[in-house]
Specification:
By secondary structure, the chain is of the alpha+beta class. The protein has four domains: 52-62 and 221-307, Efflux pump adaptor protein, beta barrel domain (Elongation Factor Tu (Ef-tu), domain 3); 66-94 and 188-220, OB fold (Dihydrolipoamide Acetyltransferase, E2P), CATH 2.40.50.100; 97-186, Helix hairpin bin (Helix Hairpins); 310-377 and 399-487, no CATH class. Helix content is 38%, strand content 31%. The chain has eleven helices and 21 strands. It has a six-stranded antiparallel barrel. It has a four-stranded antiparallel beta sheet with strand order 3-10-8-5, with no helix packed on it. The chain is elongated. The chain starts with 8 loop residues before the first helix and ends with a strand.
């Protein structure tokens, strides 16, 4: 019997067709030998760069006073309401004074009784002293016995003690009168400050019990034209915050409006919330139009540092490396790059007088001469150069150690200049020196023809979009590479 064998050929044909399709797709998708890499670039521009810290807090009055009652009783009248403006000494509420008036009347009566008792004791003392004087005279003539004289002496001393006791009783009753009168004045609850009533928890007819804890009946905020925000700032950021730094914030009540303030205080009272440490930072706020209310949630941004009118590049430029290169895009600045500092911008911000400016120009000229000499010496040594400094044990110094050594040397070179500065100017100058010494050396790329060319520059502060860069080779408007895109002509 003949069996046909033509059916298995169909799957083989399908396999061949699939292989051809895969090969065609690969050929179609494989880059052409003529394809080239196109670079994306951005212009080097002059602008502002800011370092900010964001946090959330609550708006509060500068001072909020809780007012209660120092006595117990029934509230007879309430004279103020929510949001009402009150002045210092104004009566906010009254407690029924009948009980306290009765206590005062009784205390005054007791005082009158004590004064009458003093008069009686003084009269008895006068009589006892006269009797003692007579019996002393008679005893001298032996007309009375010694025992009678002793009894007269004892009577006189007892009369004197009763006078002293009567006077003490008067003082006691006088204090009781003052206490009763004070309680009567406490029946009127007065405002201790000028301000606005935020809370009114008192109602006529309400009974106040102040025996164990003073109840809060009113809460008054002082002038709301000046307010504050208490921000909770993470411990990793709080070290950058200083008094006087500007701040911006928004509130949900006015989503399209931005308010301004300034850092007034960084408090040391840390808070631990689920192992997250935060510190209170107080922002003072001007609320002249009274649009901000106590209790509003504020989303604030503190401006830690800002550079105005500096050369800046998009942050993508610092991350970019052309294909096939292994250049490290960010390394600590070392050697001559750290020693040749450009302190012009730092000094310009100090507001120097003529004497200070002359001293700086002299020190800067000497620094440039030393830099030129170092450059000449390095050229004579050639690429090999001297061996790197060691910190002991054959180890090379860390970038931080190098920065500290160079900072000490730079400040010594400018010692005559810094001696003429005020404390604030000196601190700003030293901070500028340390900032430049701690700057990173980064590599930017630009095109020369169609070839990427590296440029070594020093980076400054950075925000979310841009980074400050400094180098004599950089010019405004220069094209800096930030990425690539493949294209086939």
């Amino acid at each position: 019997m003949n069996v046909s064998k033509s059916k298995p050929r169909l799957p083989r044909v399908l396999l061949v067709l699939a292989a051809v399709a895969v090969a065609a797709s690969a050929w179609w998708l494989w880059p052409s030998p003529n394809s080239e890499v196109r670079f994306r670039s951005a212009k080097l521009e002059v602008g502002d760069v800011s370092v900010t810290i964001s946090a959330t807090g609550t708006l509060k009055a500068l001072s909020t006073v809780d007012i209660g009652s120092q006595i117990s009783g029934q509230i007879a009248a309430v004279n103020v309401d929510f949001n009402e403006q009150v002045s210092k000494g104004q009566v906010l509420a009254r407690i029924d004074p009948a009980n306290f008036a009765a206590r005062l009347t009784q205390a005054k009566a007791d005082l009158s009784s004590a004064r009458a008792g003093l008069q009686e004791a003084q009269a008895n003392l006068k009589n006892a002293e006269a009797d003692f004087a007579r019996k002393t005279e008679l005893s001298a003539r032996q007309l009375v016995s010694r025992s009678e004289l002793d009894l007269a002496l004892a009577a006189r001393d007892q009369a004197r003690a009763r006078v002293t006791s009567a006077r003490a009783s008067i003082e006691q009753r006088d204090a009781a009168v003052a206490d009763a009168a004070l309680d009567l004045t406490y029946a009127e609850i007065r405002s201790p400050v000028d301000g606005v009533v935020l809370l009114r928890a008192a109602e006529p007819g309400q009974t106040v019990a102040a025996s164990f804890q003073t109840p809060v009946l009113f809460q008054i905020a002082e002038d709301l034209r000046q307010m504050q925000i208490e921000l909770a700032v993470d411990e990793s950021d709080v070290g950058q915050i200083r008094t006087g730094q500007p701040a911006r914030f928004t509130v949900d009540a006015f989503p399209g409006r931005q308010f301004r303030g300034a850092v007034r205080q960084v408090r040391m009272a840390a808070t631990n919330t689920q192992n997250v440490i935060t510190y209170p930072v107080v922002i003072e706020v001007d609320n002249a139009d009274l649009s901000l209310l106590p209790g509003m949630t504020a989303n604030a941004t503190i401006e830690v540092e800002q550079r105005r009118g500096v050369l800046r590049v998009p942050n993508a430029a610092l991350r970019f490396k052309p294909p096939g290169t292994e250049t490290d895009s960010a390394t600590p600045a070392t050697g001559m790059a750290r020693a040749n500092l450009d302190l012009g911008d730092v000094v310009a911000s100090l507001g120097l007088n003529a004497e200070q400016q002359t001293a700086y120009d002299k020190a800067a000229a000497a620094a440039r001469e030393r830099a030129a000499q170092r450059a000449a010496n390095a050229a004579q040594r050639g690429p090999g150069g001297p061996p790197m400094m060691s910190m002991g044990g054959g180890e090379a110094p860390s970038p931080e150690a190098i920065a500290q050594m160079i900072a000490k040397r730079v400040l010594e070179n400018y010692a005559e200049f810094t001696a003429l500065l005020s404390g604030e100017q000196k601190a700003a100058f030293e901070a500028g020196v340390l900032e430049q010494l701690n700057a990173r050396q980064v590599t930017l790329w630009t095109l020369e023809g169609k070839t990427p060319t590296p440029i070594k520059v020093m980076s400054g502060i950075a925000d979310a979009t841009h980074t400050e860069v400094r180098s004599p080779a950089l010019k405004e408007g220069m094209s800096i590479l930030i990425g690539t895109e493949s294209a086939t002509p």
